[in-house]
Design a protein that fits this description.
heterodimer; A: 228 residues; alpha/beta; Rossmann fold; 7 helices; 33% helix; B: 327 residues; alpha+beta
């Protein structure tokens, strides 16, 4: 699904923030990405959701070498990836419902074909009463759930989440984690970047640990393998 | 407002109920929901006002051009239907006899509807504003005029008319062709200048749209980024901005066009109130009744649509170019 081969990334003429990354994300897999602040988690996520291209090495996403893709082709690939941003990135002038339905609207679907689907998902994430509310009046946890709902509404083949439980209380964090696990069971590969180490104990998953631009991969069954 | 079925939702139900979406399908036109570009911004309101002002001025120009074109057509048709025979006083010739002979020739000439020679008294009265009263007109070598009305239904051979009048050596025929050519040239010049002004206004509107669109894309950069992250292509995003600016431009252009129509109608009412005065008569002589014809109304409607179309196309091109620069 995703393959990094000797991938390096630098911003402009600065030093490499990611070095010699070689690993893969397989279909149906579940992994956590952890590491200290400034270690390169966000840069790695940007590579994964095709916001950046490697400055060296090869990054293959859904069998496409990203260095050869046009901007429009990248957009089409992104439709297969759901993203939950740490800062939510909800559009303040759209209601919760419209924010969650945004990916479906971009796909050109008529509202009648997805209305109940969006409402059901909002009910499930506990925003059934906040459908017509605008993001500025939502709490941090509600924004978080709306952002997650927007990321999963198209049932992406891969879900990337940056600190998805950072603004919610433990019971809700557990509920959201259950959402990710259930999505994973239906075939979605999930990668969660988090500082919350308690999450790692709740799900048996691969552990990607990033430090100083390098990556160590720990498989729950196979121990430390350093790659894919 | 969403009114979906509120049932006890479960993720299993939600996942099972839907297959994976066709993520690779092309951007179709989305179901019309809320505008993805925030609806109100200072730049947007300013652009709408600029477009309204430009359309107002452009519509006034179109109306003015139509007024001049119609008035020029009236003048030329009047002039074309008339000619003047001038009989010069020459020593040793009887002017009155020459006028009589020239009148007889004109009356018999094919294509002439009416002949009206100015008498010596009428000529004197005509010159009174310049020469004053009490002056013996017979003491001055003043030419005598004969007004010839040409028939509407047949063409008069002016060259043959001139040859026929050669029998009276002091008579000359003026068919007003020189005036006619000058008026036509002036009317054309006014129309060309008017069209150039309208074209410049449309170009200025286009430039305003370029700057406003760039500002809107920059201001809404977070919106653009989110749309990119959920898989929107540049063409889809450009379409959203285009829809936003098309609506703004249409509102501005319609407001400007309606204001111009109101101003022209108000001018017509004021001109009608002045009709009995000397100034009003002059204006009416120059511009007719100061009312727009059907071509004037059509011109304003076309201008409104043109401004709106230019704004929409310019916006789309600008967004596409701006997005191409955003990596």
């Amino acid at each position: 699904m995703v393959r990094f081969e000797n991938v390096g990334l630098r911003y402009g003429l600065g030093p490499e923030v990611l070095r010699d990354l070689t690993f893969g994300i397989e279909p149906h897999s579940f992994q956590f990405l952890t590491g200290p602040s400034g270690a390169g988690k966000t840069s790695l996520l940007k590579l994964l959701f095709l916001s950046l291209r490697p400055t060296r090495g090869t990054l293959t996403v859904f069998d496409h070498d990203t260095s050869h893709l046009t901007k429009d082709e990248l957009s089409v690939l992104r439709r297969r990836i759901g993203i939950v941003f740490q800062d939510f990135r909800l559009l303040d002038h759209l209601t919760t419902y419209e924010n969650v339905a945004l990916p479906l609207r971009v796909l050109g679907k008529e509202e009648a074909s997805y209305r109940s689907e969006v409402v059901d998902l909002l009910e499930w994430v506990g925003l059934g009463e906040r459908i017509d509310a605008y993001p500025p009046i939502l709490s941090g946890g509600e924004k978080q759930r709306a952002a997650i709902a927007r990321a999963v509404i198209v049932r992406p083949e891969m879900l990337l989440a940056d600190e998805p439980t950072g603004n919610v209380d433990p019971p809700l964090a557990k509920r959201l984690l259950r959402l990710f696990v259930e999505l994973n069971r239906t075939g979605t590969a999930v990668l969660i970047a988090t500082h919350d180490l308690s999450l790692l104990d709740q799900v048996e998953a691969r552990h990607l640990f990033i430090r100083d631009g390098g990556l160590t991969v720990t498989d729950p069954h196979g121990g430390e393998d350093g790659g894919w | 407002m969403v009114t979906g079925t509120r049932r006890s939702a479960s993720l299993q139900h939600w996942v099972a109920a839907q297959g994976r979406d066709g993520a690779g399908q092309a951007d179709a036109r989305p179901g019309r929901g809320a505008s993805l570009v925030p609806p109100s911004s200072i730049a947007g309101r300013a652009l709408m006002v600029i477009i309204a002002i430009m359309t107002f001025l452009g519509s006034l120009t179109v109306g003015g051009v139509d007024l001049v074109r119609t008035a020029a057509a009236d003048w030329t048709s009047s002039i074309v239907r008339e000619a003047t025979i001038q009989v010069r006083p020459v020593a040793g010739r009887d002017v009155a006899a020459d006028v009589t002979r020239a009148t007889e020739i004109a009356v018999r000439f094919p294509g002439v509807a009416d002949v009206a020679p100015y008498t010596a008294e009428e000529t004197r009265r005509m010159l009174e504003p310049w020469l004053g009263t009490g002056l013996g007109a017979e003491d001055l070598p003043i030419p005598r005029l004969i007004v010839v009305k040409l028939a509407d239904d047949r063409r008069t051979d002016m060259e043959a008319f001139r040859r026929a009048l050669a029998e009276v050596p002091t008579a000359s025929l003026d068919d007003h062709r020189q005036w006619f050519d000058r008026l036509r040239a002036m009317a054309r010049a006014v129309i060309v200048v008017g069209l150039v002004i309208v074209a410049l206004m449309i170009a200025a509107t286009g430039l305003s749209v370029v700057f406003a669109t760039r500002a809107a894309v920059e201001t809404n950069r977070p919106v653009v980024e989110v749309l990119h992250f959920v898989g929107a292509r540049d063409a889809f995003i450009a379409g959203e901005f285009q829809r936003h600016f098309l609506w703004l431009a249409l509102k501005g252009a319609v407001a400007g066009g309606l204001a111009a129509l109101g101003a022209i109608m108000a001018s017509g009412l004021i001109a009608a109130r002045w009709r009995a005065t000397a100034g009003g008569d002059q204006i009416e002589a120059l511009f007719g009744s100061f009312a727009l014809g059907s071509t004037g109304y059509a011109g304003i409607v076309v201008l409104v649509l043109l401004v709106t179309g230019v704004a929409a196309v310019t916006c789309r091109l600008t967004v596409m170019r701006t997005l191409a620069a955003i990596d």
